[in-house]
């Protein structure tokens, strides 16, 4: 248990008289008796609680296998809340007074108002909410969301990736699904896996969508709501578009079929991104961008997949997989691309059981100190090879081309060649896979059969545009924009009295940026630039 005095200064900032006076001006006062709850776990909507007098303790409620645990006790001139207040997540902890207290309730709309109007308080509160989320991830609160599944399960991996990308407070336990004693003792069957326990209540055969629905993170339309901007895809281009749109006053919704990050979140280290002289992992970069999006009021929903985009008078309707419709005045499509695979027998058997499309700590757990193969000849493959080698795995990098420098940055090529833990095989291909329940061996045409507990595939991607049949695309499926739009699609623009704006697709007020756009440079920095630039065209379209 921690009291407010034992929280670090980021988690419990000391406020000046002037800061406290400004903060309480956003709240509604309430006198609360001893032992009264100011919010309960499971509440879909709850407030930031300002403690004026008295004390409020934050607890993780008892679970069927554990007693209640006190997380912290907050005294006068402190506030109670964490990052879920900004991302729409329901409460997963409870808070109650330990003595007669006077509190002030700051509703979520008022919290947004505070963050938009008072930069100093915004920074103080945002830092505290984020720091508390990081603290909670390592303590007893992590048991409020618990995943159980097999180590080689794609579905279990999907749950963990969803939770980590959304920075959810959670824990995960890998088990052997073939161990009948373990399953019987815990009263579930192998076919129930993976299981998500939300506040101790099991969700069998859990999916990220089911968990998001239970946590309050799925899209819920407000009556007759029309937003200014919907961004479809949460990679670097989408996050940039959402952040710039929201920071410039547009009501903005960001949708992603998995979780924010895209392929960038799978990158172990980016060394040539502006402002990071010592490099930055894709996960850290996306995590900070996601926090920035919440700061400016972007409503982020994931997993939330769009399946249809239809123009309507004055805007667009975006239909989701469950049939719900989001109406917006404009849209930016940043749906990115889907990973390419190799046409090899048993490829699908080993996905998640040795075959991975990312090289992060999540995947590293499966191959620690074991030999691995990385396939690809661009920057992402080089970064993955260096990351895996640095963490103890002997690495073979297999590239189909004869010269790595053709598609890979020179600094990466130099480091790969100089690293004794990495063998580079150019002009080579993987031709076969072998193993039992998980990958054990790989055949490389120019080498033969080699041991490999992991195959990390970075051979590019195909644009995720199959759901956009109404938009002008090239033969490879990439979206045409601006002056690149085919001539037969330009007739409608004559009726509008203008030409397509930069990044605008063949449908007015629908824009595209990042990997999904024809002619884009497939780099993180370029995607960020395109996403932010597309918003400039959004403003012009809305003003027209």
Task: Briefly summarize what is shown.
By secondary structure, the chain is of the alpha/beta class. It is built from 15 helices and 30 strands. Helix 3 crosses helix 4 (119-136) and helix 8 (236-247) packs parallel to helix 9.
Would you give an account of this structure?
The chain is an alpha/beta fold and 544 residues long. Helices cover 27% and strands 25% of the residues. It is built from 15 helices and 30 strands. Strands 14, 15, 16, 17, 18, 19 and 30 form a seven-stranded mixed sheet that branches. Helix 3 (108-117) packs across helix 4 (119-136) and helix 8 (236-247) packs parallel to helix 15. The protein starts with a strand and ends with a helix. The relative contact order is 0.09.
Distinctive features:
single chain, 544 residues, alpha/beta, seven-stranded mixed sheet, five-stranded mixed sheet, 30 strands, 27% helix, 25% strand, globular
SSE order and pairing:
Elements: E1 2-3, H1 17-24, E2 28-32, E3 37-39, E4 48-53, E5 56-60, E6 69-74, E7 78-80, H2 84-87, E8 94-97, E9 101-106, H3 108-117, H4 119-136, E10 145-150, H5 154-165, E11 171-175, H6 180-185, E12 195-198, E13 201-203, H7 208-215, E14 227-232, H8 236-247, E15 252-255, H9 282-295, E16 299-301, E17 306-312, E18 315-320, E19 325-333, E20 337-339, H10 347-350, E21 355-356, H11 361-364, E22 372-375, H12 379-390, E23 395-399, H13 410-418, E24 422-426, E25 430-435, E26 439-444, E27 448-451, E28 454-457, E29 461-463, H14 491-496, E30 510-512, H15 524-543
Parallel strand pairs: 1-6, 10-11, 14-15, 14-19, 15-16, 19-30, 21-28, 22-23, 22-28, 23-24
Antiparallel strand pairs: 2-9, 3-8, 4-7, 4-9, 5-6, 5-8, 10-12, 12-13, 17-18, 18-19, 20-29, 25-26, 26-27
Helix pairs in contact: 3-4, 8-9, 8-15, 12-13
């Amino acid at each position: 248990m921690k009291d407010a005095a034992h929280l670090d200064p980021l988690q419990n900032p000391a406020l000046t008289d002037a800061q406290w006076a400004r903060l309480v001006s956003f709240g509604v006062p309430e006198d609360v008796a001893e032992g009264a709850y100011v919010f309960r776990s499971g509440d879909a909507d709850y407030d930031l609680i300002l403690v004026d007098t008295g004390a409020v303790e934050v607890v993780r409620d008892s679970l069927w296998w554990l007693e209640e645990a006190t997380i912290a006790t907050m005294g006068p001139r402190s506030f109670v809340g964490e990052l879920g207040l900004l991302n729409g997540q329901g409460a997963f902890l409870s808070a109650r007074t330990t003595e007669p207290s006077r509190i002030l309730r700051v509703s979520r709309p008022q919290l947004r108002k505070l963050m938009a109007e008072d930069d100093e308080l915004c920074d103080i509160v945002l830092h505290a909410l984020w720091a508390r989320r990081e603290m909670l991830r390592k303590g007893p609160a992590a048991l409020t969301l618990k995943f159980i599944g097999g180590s080689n399960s794609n579905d279990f991996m999907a749950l963990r990736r969803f939770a980590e990308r959304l920075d959810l407070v959670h824990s995960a336990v890998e088990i052997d699904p073939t161990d009948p004693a373990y399953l019987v003792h815990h009263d579930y069957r192998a076919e129930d896996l993976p299981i998500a326990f939300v506040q101790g209540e099991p969700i069998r055969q859990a999916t990220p969508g089911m968990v998001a629905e239970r946590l309050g993170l799925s899209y819920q339309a407000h009556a007759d709501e029309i937003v200014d901007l919907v961004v479809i895809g949460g990679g670097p281009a989408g996050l940039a578009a959402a952040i710039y749109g929201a920071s410039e006053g547009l009501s903005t919704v960001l949708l992603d079929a998995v979780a924010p990050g895209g392929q960038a979140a799978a990158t172990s280290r980016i060394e040539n991104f502006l402002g990071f002289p010592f490099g930055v992992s894709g996960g850290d970069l996306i995590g900070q961008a996601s926090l920035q999006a919440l700061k400016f009021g972007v409503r982020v929903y994931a997993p939330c997949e769009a399946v249809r985009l239809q123009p309507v008078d004055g805007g667009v309707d975006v239909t989701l997989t469950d049939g719900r419709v989001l109406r917006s005045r404009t849209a930016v499509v940043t749906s990115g691309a889907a990973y390419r695979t190799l046409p090899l027998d048993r490829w699908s058997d080993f996905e998640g059981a040795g075959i991975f499309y990312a090289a992060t700590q999540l995947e590293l757990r499966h191959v620690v100190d074991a030999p691995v193969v990385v396939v690809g000849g661009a920057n992402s493959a080089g970064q993955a090879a260096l990351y895996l080698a640095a963490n103890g795995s002997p690495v073979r990098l297999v590239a189909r081309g004869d010269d790595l420098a053709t598609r890979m940055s020179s600094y990466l090529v130099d480091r790969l060649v100089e690293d004794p833990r990495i063998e580079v095989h150019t002009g080579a291909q993987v031709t076969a896979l072998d193993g039992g329940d998980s990958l054990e061996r790989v055949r490389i045409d120019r080498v033969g059969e080699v041991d490999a507990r992991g195959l990390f595939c970075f051979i590019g991607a195909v644009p995720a545009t199959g759901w956009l049949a109404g938009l002008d695309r090239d033969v490879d499926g990439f979206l045409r924009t601006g002056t690149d739009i085919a001539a037969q699609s330009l007739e409608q623009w004559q009726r509008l009295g203008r030409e397509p704006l930069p990044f605008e697709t063949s449908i007015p007020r629908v824009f595209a940026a990042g990997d999904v756009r024809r002619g884009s440079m497939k780099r993180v920095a370029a995607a960020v630039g395109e996403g932010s630039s597309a918003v400039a065209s959004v403003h012009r379209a809305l003003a027209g």
